From TrEMBL:
Record lineage: Eukaryota, Metazoa, Chordata, Craniata, Vertebrata
Coiled-coil ranges (or none): 192-243
Source organism of this protein record: Calyptomena viridis
Zinc finger map (TRAF-type): 101-144
Annotated protein name in UniProt: RNF41 ligase
InterPro entries: Znf_RING, Znf_RING/FYVE/PHD, Znf_RING_CS, Znf_TRAF
Length: 244
């Protein structure tokens, strides 16, 4: 939909009106036949039709182009009233700058920023509303540190709130201790399994070393026996030599 033509000051050229909604072009697009439309209007039209609503020439979304620069300039220079005119805003500015003004307009209706509040107020009156809003929050004046809503003032009990907070902290602490306990037990089990595995490996290595030592001892005894036999043979040979 375009801008309501009633908002504009002075004459608006026919070529700057949307061929569908007949209001002043908003975010305009132009067909090859040079008829101009609001983007939202022509896209909605082409969902059910395949031709120009003015001269019935065949058109497609891919054929739509931005408005000619001179027409765009003429459009941007148009002067119009702020949409908050009914609330008291008397600003008149160019179409090119109207969006920027309306985003900051003191007469714009904006929602209250307090959670739960559905009231909409003029931007200029927001601070005054926030000061008395029943959904505003503040810290307990008695010093318990609890943030309360104005609607909860009469029900607020510092002792009860602190007790509830304490219980929540205790529950949270218990949960954390249990989590830490489970984590430590898991780590200990993992380390225990690792140590058992290492112990088994070391035991096997010890048994292998014992076997190797036993074989070496056997070889040493065999060598010693061979040496004694060899010495005896030498002694016998020496005796025989002397006899000869």
């Amino acid at each position: 939909m375009g801008y309501d033509i009633e908002r504009f000051v002075g004459y608006v050229n026919e070529g700057l009106l949307c061929s569908i909604c007949r209001d002043v072009l908003e975010d305009p697009l132009q067909a090859p036949c040079e008829h101009a439309f609001c983007t939202a209007c022509i896209h909605g039209w082409l969902v059910h039709h395949s031709n120009c609503p003015e001269d019935r020439q065949v058109i497609d979304v891919s054929l739509l182009r931005p408005l000619y620069r001179y027409m765009k300039n003429d459009l941007n220079r148009l002067q119009l009233h702020c949409r908050n005119r009914e609330y008291g805003c008397e600003m008149v500015c160019s179409l090119e700058s109207i969006d920027r003004h309306e985003r900051e307009c003191e007469y714009s209706q904006i929602p209250c920023s307090n959670a739960g509040c559905t009231v909409q107020v003029e931007r200029r009156n927001l601070d005054g509303h926030l000061a008395v809003c029943e959904y505003r929050s503040r810290e307990c004046p008695n010093g318990c540190g609890y943030t309360i809503l104005s609607t909860e003032d009469t029900q607020h009990n510092c002792v009860a709130e602190l007790r509830t907070e304490l219980e929540l902290l205790r529950s949270e602490m218990i949960c954390r201790v249990e989590e830490a306990k489970h984590e430590m037990e898991s780590r200990l089990d993992s380390q225990r399994r690792h140590m058992v595995q290492k112990e088994s490996i070391l035991q096997n290595e010890i048994e292998e070393l014992k076997s190797q030592i036993s074989r070496l001892m056997s070889d040493v005894r065999s060598l010693m026996a061979a040496e004694r036999q060899h010495r005896q043979e030498l002694e016998q040979a020496e005796l025989e030599k002397r006899e000869l």
